[in-house]
Amino acid sequence: xxxxxxxxxxxxxxxxxxxxxxxxxxxxxxxxxxxxxxxxxxxxxxxxxxxxxxxxxxxxxxxxxxxxxxxxxxxxxxxxxxxxxxxxxxxxxxxxxxxxxxxxxxxxxxxxxxxxxxxxxxxxxxxxxxxxxxxxxxxxxxxxxxxxxxxxxxxxxxxxxxxxxxxxxxxxxxxxxxxxxxxxxxxxxxxxxxxxxxxxxxxxxxxxxxxxxxxxxxxxxxxxxxxxxxxxxxxxxxxxxxxxxxxxxxxxxxxxxxxxxxxxxxxxxxxxxxxxxxxxxxxxxxxxxxxxxxxxxx
Length: 298
Fold this sequence. Notes:
CATH superfamily of the largest domain: PhyR, sigma-like (SL) domain
Helix content: 40-55%
CATH class of the largest domain: Mainly Alpha
Strand order of the largest sheet: 2-1-6-5-4-3
CATH topology of the largest domain: Butyryl-CoA Dehydrogenase, subunit A, domain 3
Structural class: alpha+beta
Radius of gyration: 20 Å
Strand content: 15-25%
Largest sheet: 6 strands, mixed
C-alpha cells in the first residue's frame, strides 16, 4: 500500500471534495475538518479494492459531512440572530464560467440549502451540482435508490420554490455598481446610494451574539441606506480601518480590517443593475479561515 499514491489521488481531487463538503455544511472550517478526517480513513484503504477513486472519495466525504451536519444542527437552532454560511474567499482562478458551480456556492443558494434536511441537502448537492448517479448517492447516504429519488424530487421542489431564477451578472456591471456604491457610501451621497439599492433590498448580519450586529434583517432601500451611511460614518472615525474589495462566493465583498485584523466581510448581491442583498459576516469564528483563498471544482 503506497502512502504517496493515497496522497496523490486525494490531492488531485481535493478542490472537488472540499466543494462537496462546503456545500453540504455551509462552513469552510467544518469542511476542512471533514477532509482531514476523510483523508485519515482513506489512508487505510486498500487501493486495489477501489474501482473509481472520485466516486469512492465523494461517498466518503459525503458520509462524513452528513455526520458533521447532523451534529451541528442543534447548535444552529440555538444560534443568536440570523445564521449565515461561512464566506468563501475564492482563488482568482475560480472566477468561473461554470454557471452551475457559480450558483451552487452563491450565498443566496447556500441560505436556501439551509432550509433542507441533511439528507435533502446532500442529495441535491450531489445530484444537481455534481451529477452523481442515484446509485452512488444511495451508497453515500445509506438509503435505497428509490428513497434517494424521492428525496431528490422533494429537495428540487423546495429549492425552486425559495430560490429566484439564477441569472449571471456581467462582470463589468458588478464592478461599476460596486465602485459607485463604495464612493457613495464613503462620501455620504444618499441620493446616489438610494439609486443603487433595490426597493426591497435586505441587509442580513451574522454576529452570532459575539459582536454587535443587527439581530433581525434590515429591509427596504431607505432603511438600509440610512443604516449604511451610519455604519460608514463610524468606520471613518476609527484609526487603522481599511476596506478591501475581494471575491467571496462569486460576489464582490467588502473586507473590513482594523490594521491587519479582519473584522467583517460584507457580500454584495447585484441583480438588474441594483443591489438586492447584503450579507454581513461579523462572527469572529466564521472569519477565522476567511482569509484563505480556496479553489473549488466539480
